[in-house]
Design brief:
The protein is an all-alpha fold. Helix content is 77%, strand content 0%. 30% of the residues are buried.
Length: 192
């Protein structure tokens, strides 16, 4: 009896990992990829997929969480404490956009499938980094203090994610996005 439980658990973990990897790949290629397409590409039945993720929303949520966790790991090595806050902002925007650009269509899928508050919850780690940078910039006198901190943090997230939607809609050339984002966020955050 004990032996059947262990392999089943290992199989379930492999299935989940395969489904998440496949869903990430397909949603990055097509934000409208269906659960049936994802299950087929992952080599599992829809019943198996739904056994782990009871809805498309829960699958997209899990994929978003997985992507944000990887982004958080990548951004954790970024030095935002050494340079002056405006320079650190440019580093953060460039690094964040590099990560987001790889997953831009996934974020389009998340915007379509998940409530805005859920997307924000999934970004709590990266947003804490943004908040610390804005607070430091305010303390240095570089960043504006006339708007609420929470508003500036939310604006950072919305502007970054909106770039993905603008690229998807063909209104922003991908090669211009990093510069547009940097200039936009500097105009929002930097005082004077």
């Amino acid at each position: 009896m004990g032996k059947t439980t262990q392999p089943r658990r290992a199989d379930a973990e492999r299935n989940i990992a395969t489904i998440l990897a496949t869903a990430t790949r397909l949603l990055c290629a097509d934000p409208g990829a269906s659960v049936a397409e994802i299950a087929k590409a992952a080599g599992v039945g829809r019943v198996t997929l739904y056994g782990h993720f009871p809805s498309r929303e829960s699958l997209v949520d899990a994929v978003l969480e997985h992507a944000v966790d990887h982004a958080e790991l990548a951004l954790s090595g970024l030095d935002l404490e050494g340079p002056p806050a405006p320079e650190a902002l440019e580093r953060l925007v460039a690094s964040s956009w590099e990560i987001l650009d790889k997953h831009s269509r996934l974020f389009v899928a998340a915007d379509r499938a998940l409530p805005a508050e859920r997307i924000r919850e999934r970004h709590s780690g990266p947003l804490a980094r943004v908040e610390r940078l804005i607070v430091r910039g305010r303390d240095e006198g570089s960043f504006r203090t006339d708007l609420p901190l929470s508003w500036l943090v939310s604006t950072f997230l919305v502007v970054l994610h909106n770039a993905a939607g603008e690229i998807e809609a063909g209104r922003l050339p991908r090669e211009e996005a990093a510069e547009v984002l940097t200039r936009t966020l500097r105009s929002v955050l930097v005082s004077g």
